[in-house]
Task: inverse folding
C-alpha cells in the first residue's frame, strides 16, 4: 500500500491555509491595508510570471512591463469600447499580451544572456512609446481612465468592484488561479525542460529538443500571465497609463524575485510582500525609501544568494537531510 509523504501533504496544505488567511484579511484589517494587500497580490502574480523566465528558464527580461501594460490597455479598451464586460476584459488581457509576447519573443529568444535582456528592454520601451504617442487609442500620457468599472456578474448576483473587499477577493481568486496555472507549468515535463535549458541548453539541444521553441512558449506564457496581472492593476487603479509599460516598472518583478528567490516558486510572492511592507514602513520615516530598499537589497544578494525565502528553504532542507 502506497502512502504519500508528509511533505506532499504539507506543500498542498500550506498554500490552501495561506489562501484562507488572505481571504479573511479584508474582514479584519483596515481599508488602507486591504488596498496594500490587493496591490501585493497583483505584483506577486506579475513577479511569479517573470520568475518563469528568470528563475526556471534562465532568461533575464527587462521588458515584462510591456506585456503588463498591454494587458492593462486591452482590459481598459474592452471596458470602454467593447461592451463593458468584466469577464471579457479579463480574457482579452492575457490574449493580447500573449500575442505581443509571441511576436516579440520570436525575435528575442534567438539571443542569450545580456543580449536577450537588452532586446527585451528595447521592445519594452517601444511598447511604452507606442502607448505614449498613439493618443487616439491609448489616450497618450493621460492614459485611459475608467469612469465606471463593470460589476462582477455571478449569475443573478452582481457585485460592485468599487467595494474594496470585493475588488480584493476578485484579485485574490484570480491571482490564486494564475499561481496554480504557473505551478502546473513548472511541475510538468515542459517545466523540466525549462530547468534543463537554464542548466545546460547545449546539452538539451544535443538530445534533439528545440530550445528556441521551448523558450518561446515560456516567453508567451509569462507574457500572458503578466497581461492578466496588468488587467487586475487596471481595474484596481481605475485606469491604464503608459507608465505601466516603462522600463522602470520592469525592474519591480526583478527586485521582488531577487528578494524572495529566483527559481523558488513562491519566492517572488514573498519578495512582493517584503517589497511593499518595506515601502510602507520606510515612507513613514523618509520619502527616499528606495535608499533603504537598496541598503536591504545589497546584503540580501551577498548573504542570501537564493533570496530570503529560497535561502531559508535551502537551510531547512539541509537540516532535514542531516537528521535523516
Result:
Amino acid at each position: 500500500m502506497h502512502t504519500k509523504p508528509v511533505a506532499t501533504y504539507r506543500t498542498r496544505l500550506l498554500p490552501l491555509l495561506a489562501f484562507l488567511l488572505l481571504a479573511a484579511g479584508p474582514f479584519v484589517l483596515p481599508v488602507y491595508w486591504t488596498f496594500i494587500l490587493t496591490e501585493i497580490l497583483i505584483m506577486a502574480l506579475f513577479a511569479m510570471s517573470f520568475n518563469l523566465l528568470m528563475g526556471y528558464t534562465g532568461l533575464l527580461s527587462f521588458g515584462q512591463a510591456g506585456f503588463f501594460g498591454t494587458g492593462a490597455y486591452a482590459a481598459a479598451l474592452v471596458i470602454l469600447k467593447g461592451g463593458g464586460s468584466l469577464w471579457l476584459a479579463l480574457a482579452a488581457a492575457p490574449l493580447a499580451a500573449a500575442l505581443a509576447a509571441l511576436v516579440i519573443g520570436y525575435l528575442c529568444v534567438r539571443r542569450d544572456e545580456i543580449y536577450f535582456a537588452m532586446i527585451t528592454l528595447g521592445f519594452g520601451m517601444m511598447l511604452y512609446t507606442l502607448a505614449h504617442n498613439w493618443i487616439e487609442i491609448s489616450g497618450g500620457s493621460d492614459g485611459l481612465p475608467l469612469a465606471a468599472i463593470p460589476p462582477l456578474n455571478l449569475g443573478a448576483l452582481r457585485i460592485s468592484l468599487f467595494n474594496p473587499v470585493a475588488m480584493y477577493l476578485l484579485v485574490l481568486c484570480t491571482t490564486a488561479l494564475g499561481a496554480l496555472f504557473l505551478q502546473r507549468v513548472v511541475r510538468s515535463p515542459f517545466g523540466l525542460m525549462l530547468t534543463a535549458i537554464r542548466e545546460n541548453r547545449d546539452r538539451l539541444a544535443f538530445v534533439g529538443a528545440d530550445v528556441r521553441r521551448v523558450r518561446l512558449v515560456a516567453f508567451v506564457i509569462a507574457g500572458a500571465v503578466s497581461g492578466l496581472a496588468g488587467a487586475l492593476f487596471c481595474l484596481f487603479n481605475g485606469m491604464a497609463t503608459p507608465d505601466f509599460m516603462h522600463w522602470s516598472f520592469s525592474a519591480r518583478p526583478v527586485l521582488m524575485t531577487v528578494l524572495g528567490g529566483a527559481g523558488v516558486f513562491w519566492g517572488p510572492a514573498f519578495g512582493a510582500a517584503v517589497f511593499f511592507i518595506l515601502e510602507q514602513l520606510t515612507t513613514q520615516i523618509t520619502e527616499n525609501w528606495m535608499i533603504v530598499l537598496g541598503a536591504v537589497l545589497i546584503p540580501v544578494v551577498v548573504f542570501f544568494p537564493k533570496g530570503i525565502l529560497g535561502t531559508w528553504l535551502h537551510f531547512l532542507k539541509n537540516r532535514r537531510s542531516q537528521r535523516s
Notes: The chain is about 75% helix and 5% strand. The CA atoms of residues 58 and 199 lie 8 Å apart.
